[in-house]
Design brief:
GO molecular function: DNA binding; transposase activity
Helix content: 40-55%
Mean pLDDT: 89
GO biological process, one term: DNA transposition
Strand content: 5-15%
Protein name: Putative transposase
Number of helices: 15
Structural class: alpha/beta
Largest sheet: 6 strands, mixed
Distance between the termini: 78 Å
Organism: Rhizobium favelukesii
InterPro entries: Transpos_IS5-like, Transposase_11, Transposase_InsH_N
Length: 452
Amino acid sequence: MGKPRERRETGEQDLFRSRLDQIINMKHELVRLAQAIDWPVLEARFGTVYSDGAGMPPLPTRLMAGLAILKHTFSLSDEALCERWVENPYFQYLCGEEFFRHDLSFDRSSMTRWRQRMGEERIAALLQESLAVAVKTGAMKPQDTRQVIVDTTVQPKNVMFPTDAKLIHRARERLVRLAKKMGLDLRQTYLRVGKFALIQYQRYAHAKQFKRAGKALRKLKTYLGRIVRDIERQIAGDEQLDAIFKWSLYQAKTVIEQRQRQRGRKIYSLHADEVECIGKGKAHKPYEFGVKVSVATTLNRSKGGQFALHAAALPGNPYDGHTLATVVPDMEKMIGNEVTRILADAGYRGHNAPESHKLRVFTSGQKRRLTPAIKRQMRRRSAVEPVIGHLKSEHRMDRNYLAGEQGDAVNAVLAAAGYNFSLLLRWFRQLLCLVAALISTSQSRSIPQLNV
């Protein structure tokens, strides 16, 4: 695959098509954002994954990067974004089109493949560019990034709430389906009685008849165990079938053996085995199923708003304080500035920040090394909470639909970038309103007043 053929403004005219710059408002916030983004920098950053060679060239970088920005800025699914892209000339202008198109210039699956090809490290260039645009347009000052607030949250995965009965039932269904696909003749599939046992378990558990519910759960385990042993007998000695069934059989055995309150890793979803159970002490959500995410924002609110400086998925559910060893260097690399003060909640006590930053971290409830100025700043520590709320409710961090651990990491970074770009759009809109107000004021002053 060769390198993408990047688009450049040509200024060409077409008798049968309308140029976008002739039918849209060139003062619109999306137009101003498209003009403020340094597209050549993104093209150089994303172009490193390609090499010159034979084959059809990939889609232009500006098109794919623009789609990623629009998706998380306006909280759209891939399908909804494709529908709005055809209808909205401003979306097309941001993605580098010169003429209005009535059809898609890409396939929906191209967005998925592009995200997978780029990965977290290169996708972070969009978050970095959002901060660069904020500094360039005056929405944020470079010194605003020197003092930060760090916190963690949970990015839930798009999985159903896990129970032992549903996991066992689903594992049996997947094994039976795979066995039929491979042509194995099972002695019994337990299709009807397995479903009935699941219904029994759910009804008994709802009625708090836990002995009867336990009996139904043991039935489900028995059915799954018989299916596992039947398949193992039939594939014994066949290396090809053994490789095909290896992962499904491992999951089924793990689901049978795992118990409540056991230590170590458990399976909470068969199609997304990377999901972890994380408890953050919330009364309305005691446990959440997904991945822990670190979010950093500026301590003081900038002119354009409370910008997100860094976001990263943290698989393995690490202790909050033990995340600073990787988060702080990565954040400084992204913002291109040295962090002089880090404020965090009490969950970061006993942190392992780099040696150069150990005395720059202040946590809630800390008594030593607190000056009156730092005490006043500690009142701003909770300013990161509304940022996390916006990331979840408006920029697709509330439920992650991207697959795998890479999907967790990419979605967290894109959510932060989309949040920053939404602040920039509001900043451009406010500037436009301010300019219009100044013009109207100057015009009203220039009109002479007539004495009646």
